[in-house]
């Protein structure tokens, strides 16, 4: 893996070196700058010193189109005529509102002039002048002769025609060159000579231009071929979308490169409109960044954000629609914001790759190295086109080629591993074929083992069925408590202790018979309780009213046992809010009854059984209530507490002799509370009594809502 990473770095270094040499021929002398419209090259030797940039202070006439004939006797130091009032502009530059050179707008027209002194000596070789991109139309004179033009220079948007094609101009041998250039721009965000003209020996300029075009053609061809290759991969296997996104990204960068640098597309199609060339350049850039984002998301979906991809996709669609419909003078002003968004996208992609590398995703190291190189070239081009510090022009294609090479290593690694897996599978298949009989015997033995396990499982199921039947028989004790109560009430009426037909006792008897009816039905469904197959009749009730009702139902039973039966204070936890619980009241009565029966059994006469509540208000809309049954009985040992709610658990042998049940009541209570989305538990210490509790979810409604629901019979 380290060797592959080193190989990637070496390849990127070579690519950078090739790109730098191909784009510009190196200069062997320190750059010289013009001063007040004059550039002294008397010591310059073209064959030895190489190409020189005509940068520095050019004479500058804002809002004037002056031809060489009008400047025949011109000298920067003696220009006093009001019609030829001169200022100086530092080239390269773009037109901005500045006081020192008189520029008042990014749109307008102007004349540049530079006097180049080569000395009294006669140069041995012919010179050429390389004219790069000038925004956005120009006419160029050298020593009074018209040498080149791009588009039509005009004093208004209607009179000018935009065009942007680098050109090379041959110069006659002379001791001095006076360069005059008229420039106009009314169509885009930047105007003026934003790149320096370059002067050099004719063959050196020619070789530099050929190298630059060769480099661009190489990049465009490479990106196009690789883009089509990845699109073919997607056509063959559409399940994987990363080749689609990467292929489109390569082709978009290739399209962008056709309209930058040497503008090869315009040279091949001289009549191609400048406006459409600008639209294609902007739209291809935006689409390429979007494809990069989608490509990264398809490679590392767990580390990426779908929201980020959708948001940028919407922004890209809006930006491209605006570019398509609006003229260049409007949408080109959005280039800087778009570049900042693109930088943000690259930072996001870098974060994704770093996260993937930390998580050891396949190929993340190569992707990170390739992206770092790609990102560096993007930053370079952004700085270049904003006239800031930059190395060279249009390095993004080289960066993408480096990123593409990292992807190539990833693909090679994937294919290599795939072949390794195929070879491994082939060896395994051959081994399987040679030992097919052994495999059959092994499978037969496996089937025999499976048959034996199924027989054992069937036996287990049979025993479970028998256990279920015994369970149904044993839990019939649950009917004993309500039947005893009903029998006691009726006996009291027969003996005259209670008046025959007393409505209170008749209502209590009726409630107990309803409870018995429900219990009898549940006995047949108890085996389904843990599987959540028992039917519950949920109804919303005021929590405090429910607790009052349950407390009252067991009051006589507790008094008969000579126990102090108390109810703690019930206070609504929130002012002007009422707690409402969605419960099956009969089931909750069963839970509370089981707890109270346990309290009776374990609390001696004269003891206390108390019901208390505790509230949790949650977020003010939903919370829960804790219902506690607190007794002053003998308590439970700490090592027994984990088993209290287990089936058939009846305590230690000494306690079992005093128990009248089979240990199912609390188990049933636990399942009922679970069906209400609550919890059940116990806290106890020997000699200090026990606290059994369970929770019920509640929601808090206003008093008005509660009254309205009660009026409708819903509460």
Automatic annotation (TrEMBL):
SUPFAM superfamilies referenced in this protein's UniProt entry, alphabetically: ATPase domain of HSP90 chaperone/DNA topoisomerase II/histidine kinase (SSF55874), Galactose-binding domain-like (SSF49785), Homodimeric domain of signal transducing histidine kinase (SSF47384)
Cellular component terms (Gene Ontology): plasma membrane
PROSITE patterns per record: HIS_KIN
Gene Ontology MF annotations: ATP binding; histidine phosphotransfer kinase activity; phosphorelay sensor kinase activity
Reactions mediated catalytically: ATP + protein L-histidine = ADP + protein N-phospho-L-histidine
Signal peptide: 1-25
InterPro entries assigned: 7TMR_DISM_rcpt_extracell_dom1, Galactose-bd-like_sf, HATPase_C_sf, HATPase_dom, His_kinase_dom, HisK_dim/P_dom, HisK_dim/P_sf, Sig_transdc_His_kin-like_C
UniProt keyword annotations, A-Z: ATP-binding, Coiled coil, Kinase, Membrane, Nucleotide-binding, Phosphoprotein, Signal, Transferase, Transmembrane, Transmembrane helix, Two-component regulatory system
Coiled coil stretches, renumbered: 433-474
Record-annotated membrane-spanning stretches: 217-236, 243-259, 279-297, 309-330, 336-358, 365-383
Domain Histidine kinase: 474-700
Enzyme nomenclature, EC number: 2.7.13.3
PANTHER family reported in the protein's UniProt record: OSMOSENSING HISTIDINE PROTEIN KINASE SLN1, TWO-COMPONENT HISTIDINE PROTEIN KINASE
Designated name of the protein: histidine kinase
Organism encoding this protein: Paenibacillus contaminans
């Amino acid at each position: 893996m380290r060797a592959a990473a080193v190989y990637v770095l070496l390849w990127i270094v070579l690519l950078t070196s090739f790109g730098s040499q191909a784009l510009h021929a190196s200069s062997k002398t320190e750059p010289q700058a013009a001063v007040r419209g004059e550039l002294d090259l008397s010591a310059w030797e073209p064959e030895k010193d190489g190409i020189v940039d005509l940068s520095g202070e050019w004479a500058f006439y804002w809002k004037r189109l002056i031809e060489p004939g009008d400047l025949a006797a011109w000298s920067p130091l003696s220009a006093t005529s009001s019609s030829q009032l001169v200022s100086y502009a530092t080239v390269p530059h773009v037109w901005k509102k500045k006081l020192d050179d008189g520029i008042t707008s990014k749109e307008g027209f102007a004349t540049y002039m530079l006097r180049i002194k080569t000395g009294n000596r006669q140069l041995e070789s012919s010179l050429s002048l390389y004219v790069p991109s000038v925004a956005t139309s120009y006419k160029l004179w050298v020593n009074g002769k018209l040498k080149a033009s791009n588009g039509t220079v005009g004093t208004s948007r209607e009179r000018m025609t935009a065009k942007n094609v680098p050109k090379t101009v041959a110069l006659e041998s002379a001791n001095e060159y006076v360069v005059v250039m008229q420039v106009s721009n009314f169509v885009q965000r930047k105007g003026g000579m934003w790149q320096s003209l370059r002067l050099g020996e004719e063959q050196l300029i020619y070789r530099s231009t050929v190298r630059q075009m060769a480099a661009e053609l190489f990049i465009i061809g490479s990106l196009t071929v690789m883009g089509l290759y990845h699109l073919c991969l997607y056509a063959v296997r559409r399940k994987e979308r990363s080749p689609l996104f990467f292929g489109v990204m390569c082709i978009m960068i290739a399209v962008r490169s056709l309209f930058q640098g040497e503008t090869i597309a315009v040279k091949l199609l001289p009549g191609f409109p400048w406006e459409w060339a600008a639209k294609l350049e902007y739209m291809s850039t935006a689409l390429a960044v979007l494809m990069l984002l989608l490509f990264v998301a398809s490679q590392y979906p767990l580390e990426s954000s779908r929201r980020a991809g959708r948001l940028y996709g919407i922004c890209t669609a809006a930006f491209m629609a605006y570019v398509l419909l609006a003229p260049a003078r409007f949408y080109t002003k959005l280039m800087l914001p778009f570049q900042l968004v693109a930088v943000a996208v690259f930072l996001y992609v870098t974060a994704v790759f770093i996260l993937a590398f930390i998580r050891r995703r396949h190929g993340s190291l190569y992707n990170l190295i390739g992206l770092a190189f790609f990102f560096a070239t993007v930053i370079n081009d952004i700085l270049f086109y904003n006239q800031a510090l930059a190395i060279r022009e249009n390095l993004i294609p080289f960066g993408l080629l480096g990123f593409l090479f990292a992807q190539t290593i990833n693909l090679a690694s994937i294919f290599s591993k795939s072949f390794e897996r195929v070879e491994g599978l082939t060896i395994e298949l051959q081994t399987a074929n040679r030992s097919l009989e052994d495999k059959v015997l092994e499978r037969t033995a496996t089937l025999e083992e499976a048959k034996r396990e199924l027989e054992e499982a069937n036996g287990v199921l049979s025993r479970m069925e028998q256990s279920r039947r015994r369970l149904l028989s044993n839990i019939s004790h649950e009917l004993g408590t309500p039947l005893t109560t009903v029998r006691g009430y009726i006996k009291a009426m027969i003996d005259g202790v209670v008046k025959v037909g007393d409505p209170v006792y008749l209502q209590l008897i009726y409630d107990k018979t309803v409870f018995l009816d429900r219990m009898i039905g549940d006995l047949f469904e108890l085996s389904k309780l843990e599987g959540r197959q028992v039917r519950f009749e949920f109804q919303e009730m005021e929590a405090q009213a429910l607790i009052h009702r349950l407390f009252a139902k067991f009051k006589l039973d507790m008094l008969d046992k000579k126990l102090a039966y108390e109810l703690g204070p019930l206070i609504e936890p929130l002012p002007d809010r009422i707690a409402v619980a969605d419960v099956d009241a009969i089931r909750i009565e069963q839970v509370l009854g089981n707890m109270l029966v346990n309290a009776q059994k374990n609390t001696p006469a004269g003891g206390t059984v108390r019901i208390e509540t505790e509230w949790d208000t949650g977020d003010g809309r939903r919370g829960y209530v804790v219902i506690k049954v607190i007794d002053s009985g003998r308590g439970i040992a700490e090592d027994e507490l984990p088993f209290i709610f287990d089936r058939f658990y009846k305590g230690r042998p000494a306690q079992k002799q005093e128990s009248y049940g089979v240990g199912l009541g609390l188990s049933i209570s636990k399942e009922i509370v679970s069906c209400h989305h609550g919890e059940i538990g116990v806290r106890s210490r020997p000699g200090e009594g026990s606290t059994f509790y369970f929770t019920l979810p509640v929601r808090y409604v206003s008093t008005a809502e509660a009254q309205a629901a009660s009026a409708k019979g819903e509460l």
